């Protein structure tokens, strides 16, 4: 824009008079190199903010005499003298619009309308990503067939915010629109000059039972399939609930046969890009990794069983010798050792420390030989996003081609392998492991593969549902329904019979304590008693020898 402003300043007429802003054109022309940049900034700021300075709207009104009696005001015509700067602004905008309209307007636009008319083809090309914008057609011939041709062309190219008027609109105040939901029909409206509401009909408010072309992909709990008592397929899960809310709000229907849980999110997204489907809903499979965690069985003890044997007060003879004091100290230290060993064993019963070293990095994972199961399509994506990382640790991952096979292997909860999982799936495992005897897996944030892999809804760039679906998603998120549906997915899986509240871990029931459980305690107590007896015998011998 700066070059355009500089060019216009260079072509200003020096003899023009000053406008309401008081800036003479000769000053703008002679200082064009210094003023072109600030003027460009002002023009861009005015366009972005949508504000036009009041002084630029003001003008000097100059009466010019035409003919007749000079004392009669009717013989004068008014001439408005604007400031020079808004006229430059007007010329800059005019050239920009002219550049756009030069590619849009063609000679054939005024001929009789045909569906393949070059003008409409140009219009569709320029509205490639803005098909939802509002369009008004001015038609020459007042024929119903022409209206059908226009509206059929608009529906074919996914333009729904369209109205058409004839040349007699100023007299009849009649305009037309169309609806293709349910069946094609032309709708006629009468415009009221006092009308303040939008004249464009909101077709997306009620789609009259239109079947949505949505492909669900990814694994549970995003999409959960189940059967009701009548045998009908029910879609639930947090992704399924989004579209259940959409069909209820807009009177649509959901095609339950279009659920492909065997397709990964990347494969579903490709179908949207090539135009095979209009909308897809899929969940990512990986975000972070959960790892195996082994535990050792524990024994239960009761500290009251030994309170009578240890921790009792020891009588110390007055004026005891140094040897006796050393013996008392050794007994005291032995008691501390026994209590500490016994207490530590008790406290470790419920914690059950792992038998193997915890894996905290990919280097630890590589040295351990543990394989991470992951979808093969996701490894390709990771090679694109993190190529150096994947080249270094590619031997860690074991790619599985089919999504169904991957979910079946992961749901076996086999601790010989590690698995990738997203946040929503891990919440299911967290609820499920409440019924386990001990923890099988842990969630590892240190080994996160991809933190920015959100659940997404892919839509065709010109989908008629884009605006209404985006607005619904904002309402769902602000109301907290997304978080609620994610938490409820565990109970929906139970209702659908996908998971069961079973303990898949080895049985570790508590039992009554036996004498054998006190083996080492008795051994240590016996050793302490022998030491005390030897000390006592030694003291007697020393005492008699001195006597």
Tell me about this structure.
With 547 residues, the protein is of the alpha/beta class. Among the domains are: 2-100, no CATH class; 105-201, no CATH class; 303-351 and 514-546, no CATH class. It contains 19 helices and 19 strands. It has helices at 2-10, 25-30, 32-49, 54-57, 84-104, 118-126, 144-156, 169-172, 237-250, 265-273, 322-351, 362-368, 376-385, 387-393, 403-411, 423-432, 466-478, 481-495, 519-546, and strands at residues 59-65, 76-82, 135-139, 162-166, 174-179, 185-190, 211-212, 214-217, 224-227, 233-236, 253-254, 259-260, 279-282, 288-292, 372-375, 397-400, 418-421, 441-444, 456-459. The strands form 6 sheets. The protein has a 5-stranded mixed sheet. Helix 7 (144-156) links the parallel strand 3 and strand 4. Helix 13 (376-385) packs across helix 14 (387-393) and helix 16 (423-432) packs across helix 18. Mean pLDDT is 75; it is low at 103-116 and 285-309.
């Amino acid at each position: 824009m700066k070059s355009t402003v500089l060019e216009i300043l260079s072509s200003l007429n020096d003899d023009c008079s000053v406008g309401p802003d008081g800036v003479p054109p000769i000053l703008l022309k002679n200082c064009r190199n210094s003023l072109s940049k600030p003027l460009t900034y002002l023009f861009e700021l005015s366009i972005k903010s949508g504000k036009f300075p009041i002084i630029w709207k003001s003008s000097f009104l100059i009466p010019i005499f035409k003919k007749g009696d000079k004392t009669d005001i009717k013989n004068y015509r008014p001439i408005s003298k604007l400031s020079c700067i808004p006229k430059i602004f007007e010329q800059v905008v005019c050239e920009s619009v002219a550049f756009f309209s030069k590619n849009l307007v063609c000679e054939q636009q005024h001929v009789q309308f045909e569906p393949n008319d070059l003008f409409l083809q140009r219009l569709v090309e320029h509205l490639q990503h803005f098909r939802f914008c509002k369009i008004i057609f001015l038609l020459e011939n007042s024929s119903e067939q022409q209206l059908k041709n226009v509206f059929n062309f608009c529906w074919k190219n996914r333009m729904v915010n369209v109205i058409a008027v004839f040349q007699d609109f100023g007299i009849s105040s009649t305009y037309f629109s169309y609806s293709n939901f349910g069946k094609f029909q032309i709708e006629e409206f009468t415009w009221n000059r006092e009308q303040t509401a939008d004249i464009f009909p909101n077709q997306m408010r009620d789609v009259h039972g239109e079947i949505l072309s949505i492909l669900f992909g990814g694994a549970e709990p995003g999409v959960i399939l189940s059967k009701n008592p009548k045998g009908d397929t029910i879609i639930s899960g947090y992704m399924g609930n989004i579209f259940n809310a959409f069909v209820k709000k807009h009177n649509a229907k959901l095609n339950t046969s279009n659920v492909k849980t065997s397709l990964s999110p990347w494969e579903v997204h490709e179908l949207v890009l090539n135009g095979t489907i209009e909308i897809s809903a899929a969940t990512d499979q990986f975000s972070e990794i959960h790892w195996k965690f082994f535990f050792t069985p524990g024994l239960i003890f009761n500290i009251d069983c030994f309170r009578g044997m240890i921790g009792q007060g020891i009588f110390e003879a007055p004026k005891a010798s140094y040897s006796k004091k050393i013996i008392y100290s050794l007994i005291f230290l032995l008691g501390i050792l026994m209590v500490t060993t016994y207490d530590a064993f008790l406290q470790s019963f419920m914690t059950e420390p792992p038998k193997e070293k915890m894996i905290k990095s990919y280097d630890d994972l590589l040295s351990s030989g543990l394989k991470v199961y992951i979808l093969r399509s996701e490894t390709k994506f990771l090679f694109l996003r993190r190529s150096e990382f994947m080249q270094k640790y590619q031997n860690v991952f074991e790619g599985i081609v089919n999504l169904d096979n991957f979910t079946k292997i992961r749901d076996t909860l086999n601790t010989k392998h590690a698995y990738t999982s997203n946040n929503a799936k891990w919440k299911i495992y967290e609820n499920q492991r409440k019924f386990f005897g001990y923890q099988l897996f842990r969630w590892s944030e240190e080994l996160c593969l991809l933190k920015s892999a959100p659940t997404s809804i892919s839509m065709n760039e010109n989908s008629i549902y884009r605006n209404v679906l985006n607005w619904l998603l904002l309402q769902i998120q602000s109301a907290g329904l997304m978080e609620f549906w994610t938490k409820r997915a565990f109970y929906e899986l139970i209702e659908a019979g996908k998971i069961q509240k079973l303990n898949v871990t080895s049985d570790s029931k508590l039992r009554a304590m036996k004498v054998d459980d006190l083996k080492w305690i008795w051994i240590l107590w016996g050793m302490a008693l022998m030491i005390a007896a030897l000390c006592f015998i030694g003291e007697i011998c020393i005492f008699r020898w001195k006597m």
